[in-house]
Amino acid sequence: MTLLAVERIKLFTTRSPWWCMLLALGLTIGISAVIATNWNNSPMPVVATVYTHTFGLYVIMVMAALAVTTEYRFGTIKSTFQAAPDRISPMVAKAVVVTFLAGLVGLAVGFGSWGIGKLLADDASQLALESANDWRHVAGVSLVYAAGAVLALGVGALVRQTAGAVSIILVFALVLESVVGFIPNIGDDIQKWMPFSVVSKFILGEPDAIAGAEAGVGGPPTVGDLSPWGSFAYFAGVALVVYIVSLVVVKRRDA
Q: What is the DSSP letter of 43?
């Protein structure tokens, strides 16, 4: 419990987590408001309210990476490891605190985006949370943010430099996963297993049919042959593997 308290204090005594949380909420809910305001001619589906969840996800992953890299930057990681020589326990405590915070932000993003859609959409008749799919679209954002934070913590611990960790996260998610699809013959098959592409199916995949909706209203296409929950399990598994590898590396190398 002491380590958890220490990591909580270290996280919240810097400004970057506060700015990241505000930016994640503002971007996702703000753009969701624009989408809801301009949604015409058909009932707005629940899944449409969370189209923008990835904006907040990337910001929260940057926040998680900063939670590790700033300690290396300012040398406080040495004091942390002197207080806890096993090195694993403070890293796990940091993961618990950051992952819990990321999940709370994801919950606020999901329900905030849904709420603003329900408030601003011309036709909100289909925005009630009545099915398991509806709840997955909205509440599932919390799980994706939490798993994304674990992945970012692993990357941050491996790279140790803020610029490098943030670049890897953003370039991989925003550029590499899109570009890989253009590789002749095998690009589509590789893209089906890219973690960020796969996990989008958990949030956006298999929406309920809506009576009176226009064709194609279900949302952006998703990739992969896994089910929505299988897609999340795959993403969480990748995040956990990266994080475990980072613990092994942190344990073995000099601080």
A: P
